[in-house]
Amino acid sequence: MGGTVSRAKWLGWVWVAALNVLGAQQAHASMIEALDLAALTDNAEEVMVARVVAQASHYDEHGRIVTDVEMLVEQSEKGAAQTGKTVLVRRLGGVVNGIGMRIEGEPSFVSGERTLLFAQKLPKSAVLRAVGMSQGVLRIAERSGESWVSSAAGGAALVRRGADGSLTKARSALEQPRKLSDVLSEIRARLKAAR
Length: 195
Description:
There is one protein chain. This protein is an alpha+beta fold. The radius of gyration is 21 Å and the shape is globular. The model is unreliable at 1-27 (pLDDT under 50). The protein is built from three helices and 13 strands, in the order H-E-H-E-E-E-E-E-E-E-E-E-E-E-E-H. Strand 11 (156-161) and strand 12 (167-169) form a beta hairpin. The chain has a single domain (29-194), classed as CATH 2.40.50.120. Strands 2, 3, 4, 7, 8, 9, 10 and 13 form an eight-stranded antiparallel sheet that branches. Strands 1-11-12 form a three-stranded mixed sheet, with no helix packed on it.
């Protein structure tokens, strides 16, 4: 009987381990409304090409871990940000004293990278937040001597609400990389039409 109990315990542990492995492989994402380039432009107070200079994580006034990203403005398309000045962009999540917090769908930044940023100001603050979470951060990469932008909307399940209230899967603002110059032309046309 001792062998049977041992075998039952062993099978139980195998079952728990299998469930843990299967559970760990499940994808988790934040469900957010998909925004196209026009909606990103319309909803942003600031639209700019900016380079990541530095990042620092800390607890905010609500006890959440946030990361403040200092960005150097290379080109401003909308808003008060000035070329050559720095702005502060806040995202939820980060690591403070070995304690980490990650929010699926929040943007991530890499020091030195260039982005096309669509942002709004936090209430009563000069600190910015990306519009539509990671949708408001388009990564810029150099290829064959030209700048290209691509979506950085990782960890987000993008959806649209139908007239009947149902949610359907939607695409990001940029399904394929596009030339930065073409995207900026589209943004400028949108801003000109809104005047």
